[in-house]
Write a structure and sequence with these properties.
Helix content is about 45%, strand content about 15%. The chain is α/β, with parallel strands linked by helices. The C terminus is likely disordered.
Length: about 350
């Protein structure tokens, strides 16, 4: 995609909350024309007002006869809804320069405890929804002058954790899909596909998740603000690259998963139990926002903040667990028994 110095037409999916909403704010300040999509009609109306106010304060005025922001309620798990979104954007503005895909839903619980229909719908939104959007984006880019697709993946598309099987499965699929698309469009002039992989981010997704774990989820430390991820997305749109990772511990997690998998598996379960699930009880199993939006809980931020203190405790816990594992392995070798 040619590097844009002026206003772009950008479709943002998952715009009603979290990273998508923060990205909408950042691009509104820049003066881009926005097409906002999410399941929540109420959430979209609120984000539209915020983006118009931000653009006005930044001194940006819409072109004659063109609204600065278009909202299109969209469930990405429905292919026809995604098609209608792109048709509406193209009909009004004549082009789509970039697409930012950020929607996701989560279900907590052991794999066998999460109902099959909940598991399947998490995959339908997180993975199949990404495929639906990518298909339409590439079709419009090929028919026009190119464009840039930015997909929000996750650290959990590179490592695994207990109690989030449907989300982990989906994000591994998303990462595989994006890498495949990058290979397929490598020599297509004007088309770019990028992946953003955040670690823990302070968004409402954890509190809105389905839960069969009897405790509310929370982001594992260290926790970044969604604005940090939004800034990475804005940078990618200005200077395309294959992938960017957002999170100071992402490379540490990935290294451990790939190169010391036995130690990683021993450490990750107790760490996830202590730091990936909060002390807030969730006594009755519930579907959260998996099947329908929960507008009252939608915002840019969750309730976790940076929680830097948890990072210090987390690091100490990991070091202690690793030392214990090392001691067990030394003892096993000394007694002649098998190790990890």
């Amino acid at each position: 995609m040619p590097r844009h110095t002026g206003a772009r037409v950008v479709i943002i999916l998952g715009a009603s909350s979290g990273i998508g909403r923060a990205t909408a704010h950042a691009l509104a300040r820049r003066g881009d024309t926005l097409v906002l999509a999410a399941r929540s009609v109420e959430g979209l109306a609120e984000v539209e007002r915020e983006c118009l106010a931000l653009a006005e304060r930044a001194g940006h005025q819409p072109g004659p006869g063109e609204p600065r922001v278009l909202t299109v309620p969209t469930d990405v798990s429905h292919r026809d809804a995604v098609e209608r979104l792109f048709t509406a954007a193209s009909a009004l503005y004549g082009r789509v320069d970039a697409v930012v895909h950020a929607p996701a839903v989560v279900a907590y619980g052991r794999f066998e405890e999460v109902p099959a229909d909940v598991f399947d719908h998490v995959v339908a939104v997180d993975l199949t929804g990404t495929a639906n959007v990518a298909r339409e984006a590439l079709r419009h880019f090929r028919a026009g002058d190119g464009g840039h697709l930015v997909v929000v993946g996750s650290l959990l598309g590179k490592v695994v954790t207990p109690w989030m099987s449907s989300y982990v499965t989906s994000k591994w699929g998303v990462h595989g899909l994006v890498r495949t698309l990058q290979a397929e469009v490598r020599h297509v002039p004007g088309i770019e596909v990028s992946l953003v992989s955040p670690g823990g981010v302070d968004t409402p997704i954890y509190a809105q998740a389905a839960s069969y774990a009897r405790r509310e989820g929370r982001p594992p430390p260290p926790v970044d603000r969604p604005e940090k991820v939004a800034r990475a997305i804005v940078r990618l749109l200005g200077r395309p690259r294959r992938e960017t990772s957002v999170g100071p511990a992402n490379h540490l997690y990935t290294f451990g998963f790939r190169f010391v998998p036995g130690v990683f598996d021993v450490i990750v379960a107790p760490v996830m139990s202590r730091f990936g699930l909060s002390g807030t009880p969730s006594p009755e199993p519930h579907t959260g926002n998996v099947f329908a939006p929960l507008p009252l809980g939608e915002s840019v931020h969750g309730k976790w903040g940076r929680h830097w203190q948890r990072w210090v405790v987390f690091a100490g816990s990991v070091a202690g667990t690793a030392a214990t594992v090392a001691g067990v392995r030394r003892a096993a070798r000394g007694s002649g028994s098998g190790g990890l």
